[in-house]
Specification:
Length: 328
Amino acid sequence: MMDVARATGVSHQTVSRVINRPDSVRPATRERVLAAIKELGYRPNLAARALVTDSTRMIGVVSGRSSYFGPASTTAAIELAARGAGYGTLVTSLREGDDSEVDEVLGFLATRGVDGIIVVAPSIGIADAARAAARTAPMVVVADGFEPSARLHAVCVDQELGAKMAVRHLIGAGRRRIAHIAGPSDWFDAQARVRGWRTAMEDAGLDASELYWGDWTAESGYTLGTEILVRLEREPLDALFCSNDLMALGVLAAARDQGVPVPERLAVVGYDDTAGAEYYAPPLTTVSQPFEEMGRLCVEVLLRAIAGEAGVRHSVPPTLKVRRSSSL
């Protein structure tokens, strides 16, 4: 900073203001200082700044089940939003199926002095572990169905609403017997989508007993889809609502192999709007999650938590993308 000050003929306090409060410096001086910063390759020493401000401007992110589309997309969106807000991120991933790691990971982040922590918690076990391990750092838990507390905020996409939108679309298209292939039963999103499917069916006076539990993979969609479609002639079915696009892809493959035309005989709807869903055969109707908006909201809520705001629940709505797989 002193080198920049000498090169531009200003005080080091002025250089500090250009970096931290640029609007408080006259434009001509600001531009001169910024040019010197670029030429000299100056970067603020964040460790030194943390000692003065008691803030590292770092956010810890715990990513559970990061190999799956939803958690991975949410984590990426949080990282981008944090950077846009002037914060760095320290991302840690949990091993598959080991929720006991949460306490260890939160301790690791706390010792690095992060200002707050965002836990992407798709499963109940991860969220419960985060609640039990929460200590001093402000925390946001990303989970639909997680109850906030005084020190924990909850942020989510309204998964139940998304499922209702999908099923109401199918009902509006004349479908009456609509089965649901759900995700794993210990996932918040899977549970919320089951609730949405069941509520929409019951609100329309339709039977909501055709529920099957998958595991998010195309293989489970294919296996369950084949099982369902083999019974199709003796037990008529109008539509299949799948809890994610990969399972819907498996269902489309099963329909192809069983000679069941989609959407003429069977409508299929997925969830997530994964990249390439519009190029499935036929193009897949699906529920699109606003991951960028989610990332921004997570960071905004965490910054409010850091400022002392008590925990509340925040949600954003998804949108339905209607394509050929459900529409004649």
